[in-house]
């Protein structure tokens, strides 16, 4: 069963790579502004999870540089997600605002909607 899951994961990653969306051509100034706005964001995710792939593709399509945190292999990120986010489910977008408040956003559809509304 875990071999089948592993194989499916490789297939998902291969097709993701094959059909990678293009990053928009931002000027260096635009990119710097976006980078400043996303500096407090990090995406807790697994490499081969289809919902995470969908979310990473949307992030790429928007040209955002959001830190990816591997919650499968990194025990610290796994713990943070469970203890601070509230559950062990990926993808999850952690958003730290300038006033220090932190939001943990679950559900790929909600994360993508939020990023599209804020950055497109
Ligand atoms: N409806 C959720 C589904 C997310 C989901 O099922 N994620 C799986 C990985 S693909 C998960 O986190 N499972 C718990 C675990 O692996 O510990 C979404 O669209 O984000």
Task: State the gist of this model.
By secondary structure, this protein is an alpha+beta fold.
| Largest beta-sheet characterization | 4 strands, mixed
Number of domains: 1
- Give the helix level as a range of percent: 40-55%
The end-to-end distance, rounded to whole angstroms, is 41 Å
User: What string gives the helices and strands in order?
Assistant: HHEHEHEEH
Mean pLDDT score, rounded?
Answer: 97
| Broad structural category | alpha+beta
The small molecules bound here are:
glutathione
Taking Cα atoms only, what radius of gyration do you get, to the nearest Å? 15 Å
* Shape call: globular
**Tally of strands:** 4
**How does CATH name the architecture?**
3-Layer(aba) Sandwich
* Strand neighbour order, sheet with most strands: 2-1-3-4
Please work out how many helical segments DSSP would assign: 5
The low-pLDDT segments are none
CATH class: Alpha Beta
């Amino acid at each position: 069963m875990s071999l089948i899951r592993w194989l499916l994961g490789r297939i998902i990653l291969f097709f993701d790579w094959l059909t990678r969306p293009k990053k928009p051509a931002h000027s260096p100034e635009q990119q710097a502004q976006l980078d400043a706005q996303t500096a407090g964001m990090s995406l807790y995710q697994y490499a081969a999870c289809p919902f995470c792939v969908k979310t990473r593709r949307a992030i790429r399509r928007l040209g955002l540089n959001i830190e990816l945190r591997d919650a499968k292999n990194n025990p610290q990120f796994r713990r943070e997600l469970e203890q601070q986010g509230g559950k062990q489910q990926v993808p999850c977008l952690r958003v730290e605002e300038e006033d220090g408040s932190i939001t943990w956003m679950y559900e790929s559809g909600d994360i993508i909607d939020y990023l599209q509304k804020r950055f497109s």
